[in-house]
Amino acid sequence: MSSTNFDPNGVGIVNGNLFGFPYSIEESELIIIPVPWDATASFGKGTSNGPQQVLDASPQLDFYHPRLQDAYKSKIAMLPIDENWKKRNDVFCAMAMEYIEFLESGGKLEESTEFQTFLKEINDAHLELTAWVKQSVLNYMNQGKTVALLGGEHSTPLGLIQALAENHEFGILQIDAHADLRDAYEGFSQSHASIMYNAIQIPHVTHLVQVGIRDVAQSEVDLIAENDKITTFFDWNIKNAEFEGQTWSQQVQEIIVALPEKVYISFDIDGLRPELCPNTGTPVPGGFSLEQVNYLLFALAESGKKIIGFDLNEVGDNPWDANVGARALWNLCCSAILSKLSVMN
């Protein structure tokens, strides 16, 4: 199908492309890299299938958007899901479950040469995955394209953040239930629980603004307090302010003020209320409606600040989670495109 006969009012076209859009990788302006990986997930498995689930659900959306005129004309494409990484992930996942069970039952890593060997293997593979993502991103960035990522667990976008840091100084807007500021959680150097700890080690990442955090360790609270890069809007403070009369619009303005001119968005879907994402890796009571997150995204897009990239992670292996995830991804795409148009104008 060519773009000239795509009917946004017709039946969803299952053509293997994200949203059923007719655009090729070569002609698209926004490229999404799917990463089917959840090897370090420590509670629920299955988010490695999130990219496929979102892809399958995405043609069923309608593509009118109240904030972006002719949104269906946006040239968006997703790369094919890499089967090699999916197969490697599945092998590592089986061993990781044994390893995590060993730790949770009181096992000591220093007493098991088997798990020491496994840990080195998975950490080496994760470094390889990050390098693969980074090189893929740089390839498309060098073609003048905006690049985003669809996980998988929340460890997956580190290579994208590293690639952006070669060309930009920027801040990260993190929407999440968890702070993800642990150092090498469970021995995994690139754990899903360590993504933001690893990201803030990058000098060109100048700010980390966290929104919706509500499940956090003392060590992470201490790091937030001592690190000037980090501003955290805890979920309990957001809700308390709302109960006391502050509007979400007012709180969103405070969030945007805390961000620099260039912004990368990292959206862990468990930042939403768990009934919207019950099969995510680590669901937590509390959180946002999708409409609240969308309000934040489009307020940022219209603020004059530039969205330079984004990720969506932790979508569960379930049609309902995928239904919500596809809509979250669509709004991320539209807000990034609107941001680019707002900056140009």
Structure explained in plain terms:
By secondary structure, this protein is α/β, with parallel strands linked by helices. The chain has one domain: 3-Layer(aba) Sandwich (Arginase, Chain A), CATH 3.40.800. It is 40% helix and 14% strand. It has an 8-stranded parallel sheet with strand order 2-1-3-8-7-4-5-6, with helices on both faces. Helix 1 links the parallel strand 1 (30-35) and strand 2 (76-78). Helix 8 crosses helix 9 and helix 9 packs parallel to helix 10 (319-344). The radius of gyration is 19 Å and the shape is globular.
Question: Any key phrases for this structure?
Answer:
40% helix, globular, 345 residues, alpha/beta, 8 strands, 10 helices, Arginase, Chain A, eight-stranded parallel sheet
Strand order of the largest sheet: 2-1-3-8-7-4-5-6
CATH topology description: Arginase, Chain A
Average predicted confidence as pLDDT: 91
Rg computed from alpha carbons, rounded to a whole number of angstroms? 19 Å
- In DSSP terms (H or I, runs of 4 or more residues), the helix count works out at 10
- Uncertain regions: pLDDT < 50 for 5+ in a row? none
* Portion of residues within helices: 25-40%
Strand content: 5-15%
Q: How many separate structural domains? A: 1
Could you say what the CATH architecture is? 3-Layer(aba) Sandwich
Distance between the termini: 32 Å
Shape: globular
Largest sheet: 8 strands, parallel
